[in-house]
Write a sequence for this structure.
């Protein structure tokens, strides 16, 4: 089975979500990408195959020289142990049972350990599910783990951990982050920032203390979907009105222009500033590549659109921006639909 970009849903048993293991962010994304291609009807694990170049694109890594590292990382996963509690019993197992590198073809094949079948296949209850795209852009390994652990309790709205238990789940050694302040800074606060800026959930937390010492943490879990995102989420795969469908297509087109991660609401603000002309947004974004430092790229872009920033031809810097892989859109067609010029097409209702 070959991996493709933008795989769908991940489904993992809660025991696996709460298991004790430590992987880098890239290692976790490899595992999660493999999980995302498992079909609900699968009774056995398949050999999952992917091109390393495509996988780098999925991870958002622009440096293609890194492709040589992917097979090494995959092979390293055969040595990474996950500890799962099964009642009174403890299972210790490597993630992968085998890795095959097709030398000269840039292809890697991987297969999960059969011990993981009860935690990934034919799940009927006690599982957590979410979309791969929710975590694929996270840079911190702790952010990925916190996302899963909190997503599991999203409907409840809160989750409490004993500090000792949380450190165990994250596989933090006794000689690491001895001071709670270090653990808080490097794990909790970093995850809090990333989840808020890049995912569909966010969290606040309260420290539980005993004799002035932190012994536990209560996480308050909240939805992080703004109104525009909700519209797009609602019609994903289920077209509603023509107006909403075109709006979401336009927002996706604008987000594809940016190397940076921008929110749907920010894309909508840019769309309004450009009066629906996505080509203007693309044109002004090219200008950002010639500016030394921009703290707020969306704010800069809005000003550039309103003031119609231009760069003299003799100062224009030629770079690799146009080589950056973007999803293809017919911007003129999208603009016509936004302005209501394409009235021949009827609304789709789902």
């Amino acid at each position: 089975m070959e991996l493709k970009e933008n795989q769908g849903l991940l489904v993992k048993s809660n025991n696996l979500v709460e298991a004790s293991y430590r992987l880098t962010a890239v290692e976790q994304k490899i595992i999660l990408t493999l999980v995302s291609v498992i079909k609900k009807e699968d009774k056995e694990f398949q050999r999952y195959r992917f091109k390393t170049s495509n996988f780098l694109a999925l991870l958002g890594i622009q440096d293609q020289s890194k492709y040589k590292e992917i097979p090494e990382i995959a092979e390293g996963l055969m040595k990474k142990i996950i500890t799962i509690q099964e009642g009174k019993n403890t299972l210790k197992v490597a993630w992968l049972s085998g890795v095959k590198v097709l030398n000269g073809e840039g292809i890697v094949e991987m297969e999960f350990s059969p011990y993981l079948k009860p935690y990934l296949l034919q799940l009927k209850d006690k599982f957590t599910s979410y979309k791969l795209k929710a975590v694929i852009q996270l840079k911190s390994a702790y952010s990925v783990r916190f996302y899963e652990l909190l997503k599991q309790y999203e409907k409840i709205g809160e989750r409490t951990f004993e500090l000792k238990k949380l450190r165990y789940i994250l596989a933090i050694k006794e000689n690491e982050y001895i001071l709670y302040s270090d653990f808080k800074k490097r794990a909790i606060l970093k995850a809090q920032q990333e989840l808020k800026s890049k995912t569909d959930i966010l969290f606040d937390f309260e420290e539980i203390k005993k004799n002035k010492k932190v012994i536990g943490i209560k996480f308050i879990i909240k939805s992080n979907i703004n109104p525009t995102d909700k519209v797009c989420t609602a019609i994903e795969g289920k077209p509603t009105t023509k107006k909403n469908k075109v709006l979401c297509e336009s927002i996706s087109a604008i987000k594809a222009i940016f190397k940076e991660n921008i929110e749907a609401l920010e894309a909508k603000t840019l769309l309004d500033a450009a009066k629906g002309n996505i080509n203007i947004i693309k044109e002004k974004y090219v200008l950002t590549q010639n500016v030394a430092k921009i703290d707020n790229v969306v704010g800069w872009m809005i000003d550039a659109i309103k003031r119609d920033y231009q760069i003299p031809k003799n100062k224009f810097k030629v770079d690799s921006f146009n080589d950056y892989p973007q999803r293809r859109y017919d911007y003129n067609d999208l603009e016509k639909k936004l302005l209501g010029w394409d009235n021949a097409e009827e609304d789709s209702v789902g």
About this structure: Confidence is low (pLDDT under 50) at residues 316-329, 338-350. The first strand starts at residue 9 and ends at 13. DSSP finds 14 helices and ten strands in the chain.
